[in-house]
Inverse folding.
């Protein structure tokens, strides 16, 4: 409405201006009248103020990590701990931390972690500073992984990865390059485990792509399976040989009992493909 009013006045003024120019009338007086009408119009003034406010948002260029949100302070965007997390009644959306502590939502966990990182008085346990999501749902008692189960787990893990890769290929939910690897694995059993391991590795190494898989990048693999597969977490821990919280491709090949060189060549080819 306000924009339309301003545009209509300017269009009307332009028509009058063209007419008066043909008749030799002083155009300066007409210009002054048009802009005086706009200046006197309260709706137009309100429109200008709203437009100016909309143009200035210092948070537009600020990216805040999990648990923080951007607020404006002294005309600058600043990241602060999330002020409010919505109430989550669905227990399936609750999260269990690595300290076996249930939080109402991922927002609540990250908010609590932020409080501890920032030295906020609302930090109740200092260990929450290092909290991360272990899996979705309320914390529960998970059976211990026996030594025999852990020894057999690499085989089961390889089989599971191949089956997932095959199903996604059949549903046309992976790229042509991944499909080609799956088809190779179908016709050549010697490529079955290696191709599946490469697909899973490259699928995890995304945020950022830096040729290592962090704890954060392992989350999409670990969280949905943690309560179903009691040996998954111990297995992934064994992959991190140097305990730096990063799993390299060499470490991935080692814990899956595969040849390192084969995985390295295929993963590089995949990452360089369009």
């Amino acid at each position: 409405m306000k924009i339309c009013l301003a545009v209509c006045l300017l269009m009307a003024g332009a028509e009058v201006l063209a007419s008066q120019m043909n008749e030799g009338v002083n155009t300066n007086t007409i210009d002054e009248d048009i802009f005086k009408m706009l200046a006197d119009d309260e709706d137009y003034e309100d429109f200008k103020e709203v437009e100016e406010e909309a143009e200035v948002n210092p948070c537009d260029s600020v990216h805040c990590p999990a648990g923080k949100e951007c607020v404006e302070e002294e005309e600058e965007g600043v990241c602060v701990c999330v002020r409010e997390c919505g109430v989550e009644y669905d227990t399936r959306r609750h999260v269990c931390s690595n300290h076996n502590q249930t939080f109402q939502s991922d927002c609540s966990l990250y908010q609590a972690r932020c409080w501890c990182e920032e030295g906020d008085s609302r930090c109740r346990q200092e260990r929450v500073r290092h909290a991360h999501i272990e899996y979705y749902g309320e914390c529960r008692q998970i059976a211990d992984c026996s030594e025999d189960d852990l020894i057999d787990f690499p085989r089961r893990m390889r089989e599971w990865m191949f089956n997932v890769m095959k199903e996604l290929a059949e549903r046309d939910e992976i790229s042509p390059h991944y499909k080609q690897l799956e088809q190779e694995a179908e016709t050549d059993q010697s490529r079955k485990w290696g191709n599946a391991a490469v697909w899973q590795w490259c699928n995890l190494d995304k945020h950022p792509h830096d040729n290592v898989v962090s704890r954060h990048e392992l989350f999409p693999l670990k969280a949905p399976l943690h309560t179903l597969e009691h040996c998954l977490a111990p297995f992934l821990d064994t992959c991190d040989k140097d305990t730096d919280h990063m799993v390299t491709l060499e470490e991935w090949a080692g814990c899956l009992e595969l040849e390192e060189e084969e995985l390295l060549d295929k993963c590089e080819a995949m990452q360089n493909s369009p």
Summary: The chain has eleven helices and seven strands. The longest helix spans residues 147-170.
